[in-house]
Design goal:
By secondary structure, the protein is mainly beta. 8% of the residues lie in helices and 52% in strands. The strands form five sheets. Strands 3, 5, 6, 8, 10 and 11 form a six-stranded mixed sheet that branches. It has a five-stranded antiparallel sheet with strand order 1-2-4-9-7, with no helix packed on it.
Length: 305
């Protein structure tokens, strides 16, 4: 979610009839795909979202939908009827386009780009909290095949991470729920699959800044594995990913230390684990080969008598 790259979603629906075959295509791009903002009560911001239709002519239905985490890997679940988000929160959003309001239904032709000028205004009485929404664009493409109606449905969303704060200063806190690398003894030719689960213990989101430092038996640092700068939503757990693996063959006893400092804070969280690495799979194969060769040699010797 961190990098603002255009999102493109394509959905192909093939409808077969005895006499003809035709496909209806939905392909949408939205920019920006992510909006992260901190707003003080009584303040407002405006953001322009651009939706481009790269597929067939379609009808777009635009709406604001709350979401929540669905797992520890960064996937989300849209909450069309949210129980944990106050109903009044959706009133924070409005469109500044002269001819549009929320929710909105518009036709969008092939190659056309539509701008949505979204205004977010937080009332003065709004409590400090995090709110997570998706600006959801759903496409409904209608086609005709030999007088038989066909429909293609698809959606794309730009996520909105909204933090309401009186001071405008975030002070997220977190703790490491789990840091491990699997068995205590690992194979030298296998990748290191670190499991690092971070829990956000605060009421505001945090951005991860951190690394895993790997030291050998002599306590010398052999490599540093940076962590991907993912967002961890309030009161949720996120499984963090290291972006690279050690560039060399490992052998012996090793120490791995995870150091995490949430962005815009000075509070560093760390945890250390120990493990051993040996080429035991290669040694096992070598032992089996020696046993096999010894057996063959013994049989040849017995046959020569």
């Amino acid at each position: 979610m961190k990098k603002l790259l255009p999102l493109i979603i394509a959905l192909f629906l093939f409808t077969f009839t005895p006499s003809s075959v035709e496909a209806q295509t939905i392909s949408l791009s939205v920019w920006p795909p992510l909006l992260e903002t901190v707003i003080q009560p009584g303040k407002a911001i405006t953001q322009v979202f651009r939706l481009t239709n790269l597929g067939d002519d379609t009808i777009i239905y635009a709406q604001i939908v709350p979401f929540e985490p669905s797992d520890e890997l960064g996937h989300i679940k849209l909450s069309y009827e949210p129980s944990n988000v106050p109903r009044f929160v959706t009133s924070y959003f409005s469109l500044q386009n002269a001819d549009l309001e929320l929710p909105s239904t518009i036709p969008l032709k092939t190659g056309q780009t539509q701008e949505f000028v979204l205004k977010i205004r937080v009332p003065e009485t709004a409590p400090d909290s995090d709110y997570y929404f998706s600006f959801l664009f759903s496409a409904d493409t209608q086609g005709l095949i030999s007088a038989t109606g066909t429909r293609t449905l698809g959606s794309i969303a730009a996520n909105i991470l909204l933090t309401v704060s009186q001071t405008g200063v975030l002070q997220p806190t977190a703790k490491i729920e789990q840091f491990s690398v699997g068995p205590t003894i690992l194979d030298s030719f296998s990748p290191l699959n670190f499991i690092l689960r971070l829990k956000n213990t605060s009421s505001t989101r945090l951005a991860v800044v951190g690394q895993i430092e790997l030291k050998n038996t002599l306590n010398r640092t052999i490599t540093t594995l940076p962590l991907r700068e993912d967002n961890v939503l309030a009161h949720s757990i996120r499984q963090l990913i290291s972006e690279t693996n050690p560039p060399q063959l490992l052998l012996g006893r090793y120490t791995a230390t995870a150091n995490i400092t949430p962005k815009n804070t000075t509070n560093t969280i760390s945890q250390t684990i120990y493990f051993y690495v040996f080429p035991y799979k290669a040694l096992l194969i070598l032992i089996l080969l020696i046993i096999l060769l010894t057996t063959i040699k013994q049989k040849l010797h017995n046959n020569s008598k």
